[in-house]
Design brief:
The structure is a homotetramer.
Chain A: E1 6-11, H1 16-25, E2 31-37, H2 46-49, E3 74-77, H3 84-93, E4 97-100, H4 110-117, H5 124-129, E5 131-132, H6 135-144, E6 147-149, H7 153-167, E7 176-182, H8 197-200, E8 205-206, H9 214-226, E9 232-238, E10 245-252, H10 259-267, E11 273-275, E12 293-298, E13 305-312, H11 316-330
Parallel strand pairs in A: 1-2, 1-3, 3-4, 4-6, 5-6, 7-9, 11-12
Antiparallel strand pairs in A: 7-10, 8-9, 10-13, 12-13
Helix pairs in contact in A: 1-11, 6-11, 7-9
């Protein structure tokens, strides 16, 4: 006997997280795609914009003003920051559960959020009730959440990498470093000069060293894990690949620890975190198109410096895949439903 | 009620067509992967070589000399040219059906094959009985075939593009041109200087203009469709992408024809050929990771020159995916079983 | 004794042809960069925008309205189409010579130009006097030209490839095909979705098959060479590299010809056209950063189909380099002055 | 009056450092290329192998056994590790000066070298007299050196980035981290699977975390600068670009320092080190093809963590360009002779 399928809406379906949600949800066995909105493309068939979806998605983009989202069981916001907070209260009131893939509900401290996002928050009270959707940290709360704040891409890779160390209290929390590298799809599908092929191709650079919006999000998570203030340096880089984040994490070990055993134990029941063998180097392509985070932990030259390597596909575990994982948890489906995606290699 | 699963063997599992077969077959509902051979990597766990398969494939590479292939229902050869012809007779004799992804059984004319492949053919009689595995041309014969010669990547894209024109006899068969572009994975996983990232990256070139091995294979197919000799020029190029073939085909129209209607009619029942709307330009990424061939037909400036654009993923419809499609046909599974792969975009 | 240096102005210095002109001219021994205009970036130091030019260019972008261009000896327009035609008459009147790198003066037939560029031409009389700046075709006229229309990138590669065949009248001019592939920098530095790394990367597609603006420009040139009407099909493609055009040309030989000798003879005195040995395959990286066009000619399988392979760097021989070559000719400098740029490989 | 040109020999001209030496030296005004050796390609014209050099290099590869290197004024070794140490003594004895671009003479401590390079050193005494060719550190000694050990690519980027901090003694030398990213050309032109386009393309990974050969070389340099033992962690990564190294360096500030002023003062007279403005993010393409190292220094969030960003072209400042810079110093040419190469952007 098949349960009734969930009616799913997507607000903002023309960006990369939107099209990735479509890729995952169009073959999800428990889901019916019901409505997809786009201000700019209303009336256009989705498959005319993304020919990869021909034969899989027969919806047309709907004007947000006309979209009937309240009939949905769940709505995903794949919108720029600041949109979801305008529309979420109304949906929640009508019993529609919400997952926001943008940053509106990620940071609990409202002044911090307002400083980094340069906006006044529209509904601070909802931030309080929102659940940060990192299943490996918050699974229980996600189950009953009405509103889930889906984590950012960098924050997912970095937090999963530091989590075992901080929970076990084995590193100096005053000096944590994340040197992170992202593929260009992380910048979204916006037409901007710095994301052009001729600018980002055959090129490598750091950016946002003075401060990146994912810094306070990660700091909040690390503080939670460490049960106390942390000193954290975050340096993001742009690397010429389409999908993928590689976070290289550095910390100072303060007590003798079997790091391999620690990581394996922490993640042994997690379907979407894969701890590699000692000495391994995960590569971004090994998770291309999949919801897996692969992690390896090193202690080079026997020093007290711990090096953690953590890779994800920024559009899957770093965005749409994790959102679907959260939906599965919220609706009590097996957590991997629709997410057994074998990575595309080469 | 579930039918008994097919026992499947793969000979030569370490190249790109091998790992792609594994990606497809490891989640195919009607298949049990039984044995994978590799001369060089015997004893190594498959997932230790291809970390993308961790959690999906738990087999270990077996030495070909020790592999028990005769217990399989079907064996795929993902080997260099000249291997399958040594081992196929024995398998067929024991009732094992065979799909060769290399070129051993593709060309019916033995002297032609021996000239282009610089080898003496080991079993010309089997070439006679082998079925050329292009389902859109040979579906009926494939159903009962014991031995299928899986087409080459270029030949798949080019033949599917020319087929409607030649079958309908509307172009000058004396002057057919295929200007084809392939991603670098088409060259395989061999360590060769010209396939290095620093050689093939940020670079574009033609190669094999004087003669490429896929030329006689395509000519054979075009001759069959045209029911007569054809004049055919084939110029392959290497383009800096990993997966994808784009064939741009030129022919001279000899009778007024509604080309769009011709193509749509020809392929209306084909699950894996998608004729785009008039004026469209298929892009390789729209089929990345999927078994679809997308085609558009143009008649620029109202001249009598027909331009057909045909794209495939060379490792899927151009190799492993088509092999699985053939297997599905041979064993009377729905043709798309295990092949409903939504393309990865971006 | 050093001749007085030319005073050079550039209108529109922020696009790729602009920055490429700067790269070439900042070390040109006979040139002083005098003024560079930009509407959007006035006041910004050029080297703050393009850090590659730090230490080489100390100019600041000037507002076009304030720029004193009439003091220059020569002005390059590296602007969008339709700008140069507004400003050229004034400069010419004041004795300033002009090279337009856009399309305003390339096409002699005004209605054709107006149809393809969707504008009314501002100065049809100047089109008449403008010289099409393909030195290998028009060197004598360029010497005394006051106004040079610098050829497009595709037209340069295609015309140089067809020229020996058409001048010698050895091919069927009714059926000429150019299958051309361009790197993404050909689309310029405009922020457009289709030029994003995540769109154009790892992807290959044709575009503009129904009609591209370079079609009438090339047709005009081929008609001139053939001394009569030609049938010409032009299919441009976008390939994931930054710089480079590869044109693959097809024609039908109508008289027995030593093609290799024909090409070598035609270009033996041309510094910037390099005819490769028989059987060679030029690659785009072999001209990366240089003003060379490399060409190889094939007659595959002994058929009557001629295949010409022609590669250039679209920003150099296809734009800024050819403009400097034209400037050298106009001012009677050795034609290769400032253009002995060894290609960057790998 | 022109000084007599130097006679230059290159041993091992077929790798990337070899062809890059050729690119630079073929237009160097004080140099005559005299002999280039290659075991595998003896008899082949250099320009037949590297078509980018057509018209610039007319030499043919010579068998090493037959090459008359002793007539040269200087010989560059662009060979695998372990070759130069076999041939250097003989050349030095005959008055030929030598620059080794491999690692044979870089590490002063012989047991350390032998451990990391898994060979017995053939001439430990020459290691003692060899000068480590980092001009910004060792210029005076290079002037009179008979034998120069040209630094590795990572070591160049990392040492130039740390040098001002260590010389000024303003950071904790016990906890230095270099997170370094290299383009694929750093792996050389060897045919190896992991350097294939389909392996290294669209992929990012760390490698050698347990220990990379450049670790002891960098440690030696940092120890020299710090005048004492350092704690140093080095994590190299492979990024999908052809040329370029980006080193991101982390250190802990131990006294209040105007970092920007410190770096500017240290490098104000260095032609090939460019300190960017405060807050800048150097990108690898800004030095593509040039001998410049661009550096920016940050102190994010006002913490005591210093972040230095240092970029070079691994084949130029990281190999062949620095070798030419060393040659210029050794022969008292202006240090930038032949090295005023404007970077290629885009």
């Amino acid at each position: 006997m098949q349960t009734q399928k969930l009616k799913v809406g997507i607000v903002g379906g023309t960006g990369y997280t939107g099209v990735e949600l479509l890729r995952l949800l169009c073959v999800h066995p428990n889901v019916t795609l019901t409505v997809i909105t786009s201000r700019g493309e209303a009336g256009l068939a989705v498959a005319d914009m993304f020919s990869s979806l021909r034969g899989y998605v027969d919806l047309t983009f709907t004007d947000p003003a006309l979209a009937n989202l309240t009939d949905c069981d769940i709505v995903f916001f794949a919108t720029p920051n600041g949109i979801a907070m305008q529309q979420t209260r109304d949906l929640l009131t009508k019993g529609v559960r919400v997952i926001d893939l943008a940053a509106d509900f990620r940071i609990k401290d409202i002044p911090t959020w307002e400083k980094w996002y340069s906006m006044t928050h529209a509904c601070p009270d909802l931030v309080t009730t929102a659940v940060y959707g990192l299943p490996e940290m918050n699974r229980e709360a996600i189950k009953t959440a009405q509103l889930v704040a889906n984590p950012g891409c960098y924050p997912t890779a970095v937090q999963l990498g530091f989590m075992p160390l901080l929970e076990a209290d084995v590193v100096d929390t005053g000096y944590l470093i994340a040197d992170a590298k992202s593929g260009v799809s992380g910048a979204g599908r916006k037409a901007e000069v710095h994301s052009l092929f001729s600018e980002a191709g055959d090129n490598f650079k750091a950016y946002g060293v003075a401060g990146h919006r994912h810094l306070p999000e990660i700091s909040q998570g690390l503080t939670y894990m460490a049960k106390g203030k942390v000193g954290f340096t975050f340096v993001p880089h742009l690397t010429p690949l389409i999908r993928g984040i590689h976070a290289t994490l550095y910390a100072k070990l303060i007590k003798p620890t079997d790091l391999q055993a620690l990581f394996e134990a922490r993640y042994k029941d997690e379907r979407f975190v894969d701890v590699l063998a000692k000495g391994a180097h995960p590569e971004t392509r090994s998770v291309r198109g999949s919801n897996i985070c692969r992690i390896a932990v090193h202690q080079p030259q026997g020093s007290d410096t711990v090096v953690v390597l953590s890779v994800i596909d920024n559009l899957v575990k770093g965005a749409a895949g994790q959102a679907v994982q959260n939906m599965n948890i919220m609706f009590d489906f097996p957590e991997n439903t629709g997410l057994e995606l074998v990575p595309l290699l080469p």
